[in-house]
Amino acid sequence: MSDTAPTPDLSTLTIAVLGGTGPQGRGLARRFAAAGLDVVLGSRDAARAADAAQALAEVGRVRGTSNAEAATAGDIVLVVVPWDGHAELLASLTDELAGKVVVDCVNPLGFDKQGPYALPVAEGSATQQAAAILTGSRVVGAFHNVSAVLLEDPSVERVETDVLVLGDDREATDLVQALADVVPGMRGMYGGRLRNAHQIEAFTANLIAINRRYKAHAGVRVTDV
């Protein structure tokens, strides 16, 4: 953690990953399971989620099911779904996600011949859209700028990057910072309120451009903290 607040205890919590069969979802699940946490992968196709979980069985405690059942099971619920299905999925899960810490990891990006670029979002950002839909949940933005390639690679022991955590609920942002901290090399850092999520989501386009130019898996490090 980046301050003197007590570190939250994650050992009794279940981490759910909606959209957990994609590269980012699978990668985050791998790292959390390796850290000893209970993980539930969610998918539109429960059988596909079960297969993805089985592939991670040797890493730790991972099971797969539908997005709705994963949302119900999770204490902390990560949203790692394609942008074009973001609003529809969250609107369908308002009851299951009520009262929970929901971590939006979605980057609204487009791609054309010039490369990646940030898409406009009426609410300001994907995280703010999530907060507008999930009015009964504690919405936080995080894990936007972490390389899925590094997360999924079992030969990478340390994921050397900072995770900027955004939100208006101090207890919830501290909890998500602690979640980031369980991954070796990763550091959770408070990055501002929900209204500041747009530039963090959009910055992923810059990182993709960097990766393409330099054949790398770039991340973010904050200095002097």
Verbal overview:
This protein has helices spanning 23-34, 46-55, 67-73, 86-92, 94-97, 126-133, 148-152, 170-181, 197-214, and strands at residues 14-18, 38-43, 62-66, 76-79, 101-104, 109-112, 115-118, 138-141, 161-166, 186-192. By secondary structure, it is α/β, with parallel strands linked by helices. Helix 4 (86-92) packs parallel to helix 6 (126-133). The longest helix has 18 residues, at 197-214. It is globular, with a radius of gyration of 16 Å. One of its GO terms (molecular function) is oxidoreductase activity, acting on NAD(P)H. Residues 14-108 form the Pyrroline-5-carboxylate reductase catalytic N-terminal domain. One of its GO terms (biological process) is copper ion import.
Largest sheet: 6 strands, parallel
**What is the count of helical runs?**
9
Helix content: 25-40%
Q: Strand order of the main beta sheet, please? A: 3-2-1-4-5-8
What separation lies between the terminal Cα atoms? 11 Å
Query: What is the arithmetic mean of pLDDT?
Result: 96
Taking pLDDT < 50 over at least 5 consecutive residues as the criterion, the unreliable ranges are none
List how many beta strands DSSP finds: 10
The CATH architecture:
3-Layer(aba) Sandwich
What is the H-and-E element order? EHEHEHEHHEEEHEHEHEH
> How many domain regions?
1
The CATH superfamily is known as NAD(P)-binding Rossmann-like Domain
Instruction: Bin the strand percentage.
Output: 15-25%
**Structural class category:** alpha/beta
Shape: globular
